[in-house]
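User: I've been going back and forth on whether these two constructs are worth ordering. Before I decide, could you fold them both?

Assistant: Sure. I'll take them in the order you sent them. The first construct and its structure tokens:
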Amino acid sequence: MAESENTETQKTDLVGEDKNVNGNMEKEMTQVEDKEEDSSQREKNISANADSPPETDKKEKKVVKTKVKGKPSKDDIQVEQTQPVAESTEANALPENVFPLFMTSKTQEIYNCKCDEDVTIENPFIMIPKADILEDMRMRAAVCDFHPFKQEILDYPGEDILIMYDYEFKYGQNFVVALTEEAKELLLKSTEEDKTEADSQAAEEEDDTVYLYVPPESKEWVSQGSEKEIDEGILKEGRRKLKVSVKRIRKEFGAAVTFEDRNVSDAKDGSVDCPSSEDRSFAVARIELDKGTQAIHEVTSEGVQTNWTYPRTATVQTYPREFTEQEKLELYDSASCKQFVFSAEYNFHLALQQNEITSVFYIDWHHLGDSDDTFGSKADNHMKEYQSFTDLQFSKDKVITCIQWHPVIKGVVATAVAEKLSFDERIDQSARVIMTPSIILIWSFTDPIHPQLILEAPDDIYSFAFNNTNPNYIAGGCYNGQIILWDITSHADRLKQQRGSNRNKKRTVLPGFEDPNALKTPIIHYCAVSSIDHSHRAPVTDIQWLPDHMQITKMGVPQENITNVSTQLISCATDNVVLFWDTKPSKVHQIQDDKTKMPMGIPATFKYLDLTWKPLLRVTLAKSEPGGDHAPIKFSIQEKQKERLTVTGAKSEMKDIDLNKTASTSQKPTSGKEKTLHGVKTFMYVGTEDGEVVYVDWMPQKDQDSGKIQTPKPAFYHCLHDGPIVSMERSPFFKEVLLSVGGWTFALWKEGVSSGPILCPAASNVRLSCGMWSPTRPGVFFISKVDGTIDVWDLLDKTHEPTLTQSVSPTSISAIYPYQVTQKQQLIAVGDYTGTLHILEIPWSLRHPTANEVNAVSNYIEREVKRRAFVEERWNFREREKREQEAEVKRKIGIVGAMAPLTEEEIEMKQRLEYDQYLAEESAFLRQLGIIQEDEVLV
């Protein structure tokens, strides 16, 4: 009875057009069905006579499909095949030591092998570690799906066990497990053979189809009247050609023609646009239109003849009248003159005081457009694209991680580029990352196509900085945690060359002696790298040089720097430490004569630091409460470089610095007689990976509990931002005001106010990527976002939303850096995730400060500080009010000594009251939802 139900009968529709053939097909199908009924009845009788029929007696009947092209014959319609079931089971039999396995959804989640997600029909195999299966069997015992094969798994020699996904339940379960190495190989090999056989069958079926090419038949062309329309649309010459005669004076034949270049921005309306306008006289019906225009002005000649009788000014045609000496003496001695002098004495003194206060040599004409009450037009209130830099070989499809303007040479900007890879992707593609060069590109406005210099590094650079006193020294932080130093002194002249100087030099070279590498960009190798054992354990995210007027000892004490040369720097990474580095050699290096030669092309400036450089001071950022450390990304100290390195005075002040003397001075160790700077604040602000702003002292102190010298706990920290902090910048006008940017928010902080930020607007709809202050306006700062836009905030305009939002790049912005070139020009460098550096020109209204803007912003900050103090006072008041209410509740319930510490009975009574109140509120809420009835009570 069961065998008749298991018999499979497949019926197919045959291809054919003849009605007789279709009739034969239906007759054949009827005969097959009759045969099946007879066989099923026969099998029922056999099953009734025998209790357990043998497997070999089972028969399977199949109707095989045959694809027929053209008119089919009777032999091709259907063929009945009868074969034992055992043969088909043999074809689908599992190899030895391979068993079906059913895995529940919970087990699939444990081993990360969810059906149709982790394992599919295309990728049915997955390797599960043997240790994970044994651990699961130990935890869940018999509940584990692998428990029936416990002994086989224990005896399994390998470390990973092969599991195959059975999508069609071919073997009875949803998975198949191989419990020996030989079974694993057989299972993999059988699956590949099945796939190859299926592909070959599909190829054979495709090869049976024959395609015949039927060439097109040529037909006679029938005219529909289109040639007339084409002929009318052709423009034909219908007028006589004009003859033009050009004449020139004979003496001007062969004269040299001189041209000169002029910048469009030098003069107002320097360029004239010719926009297209609608021609009202144009009509579609006209095929040809004749017009005449006169493109020159009319020339008129006029002349006048005048007789200049008196050569005087046009408005004064008389000689001046002067007093004689006698008349002057009489006038001085007269009473009226003395009375006038005495009466005008007071006003005369006021005029003298006014001249003393006001500059009488102020030229109004030169400052005609710089008045404080003048505002730019609406067309000037947005940033304009000034220039862009990209290199198809080194920076394309990479991310710009850091931007730095050259502190001395104008028009030179440096960018660090890195691969757009996550940590896991870097591990997977480590071979490709090692072969990809890690560089810093130095661009110049004189050549926007090719970089001037390329600084080579062992790994991607995420932060670098020019030295404060000698810009030829550059320090950078690598992705692997090392600190690198470059010396570009031998190539500094290349950055100062004017436009076209390389071409002029090439012309002066004698023929046959040209240098093929003269125009190639030089690649500069680093001259020193820190010891990897003493470096950071994570990518260096920020690096800064200390100002040249101070230096730090090993104990973190700030001292006076007699040499006035920046030799120390600070770096931070997400390995919970901030490191101080010193580039001066130790006394051991001064005594020993290092005769090791540097490779060709690498300067020996910092050879005593190469691979042996260790940090001077290590600042560990431990949290106040136990349970972890702070992971710094950005930091900021209060001390700044001297005014000689500001943008406005960099050129005049840096001329007095001798770079050779600076290099020799920076390699001398300290004398030990430096004075301690008591006015320097040793606290720093640190922005962490968790969005925390930490205020910590870098000077180590003695711990009272352990007695060790270590970094003190942070004075305070606030977890305000909802993402890693990407910027921590101090205002160039107020050194106690900071801007922090992280996640979707930014905040302004005032050093000395520990209760929180003085300004924190609403969160943005888009994640923020960077933030910088304006170098000329105290109340303006720039915020970049990942959608390619830049927000310009003006505190004097509004504080709840940005003053200007402008789209700069179609991709995410990674870094920005504003820079004042001159008093009349200010630029901002913007780097994105495609490796393109955009240079934008900031409009007049955003770079020119208003009248008394410094005082206005200072007053605003003071008001916010007072508001913050009021908020803190309200917090304390509410806390006191809460304690008084608790004391009043205790007094009402009869507890004596309301202000005394609570006993265990009082605490238990208080908790009981709070729990009863919670149950009452919960019951009322559930009754409103209709979950419980009015008479029910929660227990």
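The second construct, handled the same way:
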Amino acid sequence: MKSNSVGFDINPPNTFSYGANPLKKMGEEIWEEIQKSNLSISSIRSLIVNPSTSKHIISAVFKTLTQYLQQEQEQTLENQNQNHYLKLLCDIATHHRDFTSIVFDTVRSFAFGSSVNSQFKVESLSVLLTIAEHDENLVYAITEFDENVIIELCFDSSVSVRYWIFKNLFRFRIRDEILLRVLLGFVNDPYPYVRRISLDGLVRLSKSVVEFKNGGLIAQGYDGAVDLFVDRNDCVRAAAIGVVCEWGQMLPDSGMEVGEQDWSDSVFVQLCSMVRDMSMEVRNEAFVSLGKMKMVSEDILLQTLSKKVLGNLKERKFPGKRNAKNLDLPASNAADAFIHGLEDEFYEVRKSACYSLGMLIAFSVRFAIDALDLLMDMLNDHSTVVRLQTLETMYRVVTCDRLKVQEAHMHMFLGTLVDASNLIRHAARKVLSLLELPFMKIFKSSINGLLTNLTTYPEDEADIFSVLFYMGRNHGSFAVSFVTEVSQEIEPSCEEELRFDNPRVAAILVLAIHERLACSIPTKVFSYAIPFLGRIVISLKDCATQDALLAYLYKFSKITHVPASVEDDLFHVAGGKLPLHNIDEIFNQVLPLQQICGGASEDQFQNDMRDLRQTTFPLSHQWKVIFTDEEAEKNVNLILRTVAATWQLIKSGFTDEVQKTSRSCSKELATVAVNSNRSTGLLAFASQYVQVVQHIAEIWIHFLPLSKFHYLKTGMLDHLLEKLDYNLRKLRYEFSGLSKKEELHILELVLLACVVRLSEMEICCNVNTLKRVQSTISVIELLCEDLHIQLSEFAGELRKSLSERGYIDDGALSQQFSFKRLLDLFSLKEMVFDGMLKHIKAELGVPGNNSENPLSFVSGLPAGVTFQITLFNISDKDRLCLKMSVQEAGLFQYVFLDMNQIGGYNEINKVTLSVPFYNTPRTASFVLRACVMKECPSEDVGQRARGSGGPKWERIIISNITKIYLVAAKCTT
């Protein structure tokens, strides 16, 4: 019998027969050809998954595989290829629906055969579950499996068998009372991962346990979990915390003698005892569980914020276990628990501590007041994830009416309005929109903070206007006072022109827009707001329609002849709409405004109103302009849809086709750039995105099983990964104005790059990459929460794999297997743009310098170079530097650009700088290369520059690379 390199026996048994059917005979002959080719298992799998393969060949493969497995089981052989055979059967079932049922029944007979060894049973059950996932009609068949066979496997001597069964126990239909007793019996299994998975099962079963009302079983589970608080394995202790939290809160319902409040305090103190564990995972789980408590007394909560044991708790003892009366738990275990968590070295623990604080503030006003001081300190945390969680906690405190604002807090809080992260700024504004500010001084500082936010980050305008509107509504008298005080800022200039390009003026006008304030605000303020209607209505789209807002401004600016229908339904915050359809009729009512505007002529006024009409309403001419811009955006999205459609080609290894498609998309983008007036930021971003997909295609072929790609080297893969990382970095940091959906899309690609790096054996699976993955997943989770969407299957499974990473003993190899499996879950989604992007870039030149007109220098002395630099869309949070290098000599020099000296932060800044280059080499001539670079600040440890001698973070080039020619000056004696 022939055998290939992996042990797959090709020859079918002699007993195999197709009968007289000529087509079946043809299938047998084709199988014989396969036999002669001595194909490998991977080649046969390719034959199976190929949709063009005939049913007769698939039938021949199926019957041969089935007979191999039957023979080996009858002879009680333990062939190492059994698992491969089963997977091939699984491929047949999932790719050929005509064979699904028969494969399912065949594998089921293996799983429940009496002579089958336990390992083979588990592998068969795994295949059955996979098949059922692809065919919902078979899901019910899974629930009919004999529970006795499943339970029997729980007691198997093989650790891998027990672990797999407990991991998948809930996928079978087993009675809850049996599940409960089995899981309780295995929390003390000798193998730590079985103990952990059993504890996880008890947590999952907690809702069903309540229905049993069996206090003895619940107490047994609780006490067993408490005993595991001293387990040697981190994963077991972390899982035990979950059981103590969930089951401990069920004990009062099971008829125990201890009062509900006292026992809840006991469970809370028990959890507090684990916040100082040596393992970050355990500490993190302890704080997460603290936030799940449904009842805690105020004294215990206050103790968690104090290092000193409170007087009324010094002698207080709690029962440590349900069935062990002699184990007393001192209340001092709760002392400074949250202080310890908020000062933890790991951001994951600090984040969980912030989250739990927010969940517990509903129990006590005093606790909320004391916790606020700690939360304000956390706004200075170096981790963006922690700062964001802190603001989310503060938002919960506000919604629970527990936040008492103090003047000392506001300076630190308002600092978040100019944070570099747009997520932080948005979260801070969300809190501010709900705050009830007690004093005018605090209100004024908050408004000024928002105006500073607007000046620094003009892209936040719509969100800032919305917050100002709600602050004006919630603080009527303060808003009136502030608007009156600064009303001169919004007066027309001496030429009787409003400052239409001044966002501060528009912001102040938004603050005044509310019906409650109208009687106290000068009428001219409302008339000044009319030209800003187009900008204001975008931010108030959830509050009022454009017609309603315009009618409101007409009414309170004392304009006559307002239609009667306007009087009946005027600017309802809940979203009322006005029956105003004839825009020309509305504008005819605005003629009296010419008197307010300083006596301009009627002709001039009509011209102004025509311009105003075109800027605030989509009339015919403006529709033509908007149509051109929208068509450009539509074309870009269509091109990116084409790019996303190449994913199936990438997965199949058709890299050449992907490259052709990408080149066509790049050419099409260039055409759009010529024919469109849209901002170049969108087109530049799309072009770089196409390059990223090209890199992914080049990388993906390294992970395909096809033999023609075996010549590819790891060094080449490493180089491609570096290019992908750099281009993803440019996508993240070279553009401003990305929406949350667009940022989420990019972060998923960052995760993919990290997983590829972690899944390759020859590339170092280092801690920095894992930390980058963890921090990226945390940001993705927050984005998904904000967008009210679920994690993608890829990100969710990756998060799960990370949580299990510490449970694997054999290091990088096991990690490689786990991460490599995740690549099959990734799917390239379509990137859709819904807003404007600003391209952060620079242009660099040295006038008059070329190879024929070099600059002179004296070797060893600084050489002065005069640069002309043009900067586009630079903000005060961007750190730029000029890099000059002589590649041949290995010399380089960084010069940081001071934006204040350059001339501030405008959309376009031009400057001429004379910069000395100190490291002139001892040579007759050399070429100096210069470029402008931007730092990319990140929480990822792996993104710090290593030993560069310049900026501490990784950088991207945002300008052209300019060559400066220098020649040594001739010395005269």
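Notes on the second construct follow. The longest strand covers residues 925-935. Residues 295 and 668 are 62 Å apart (CA to CA).
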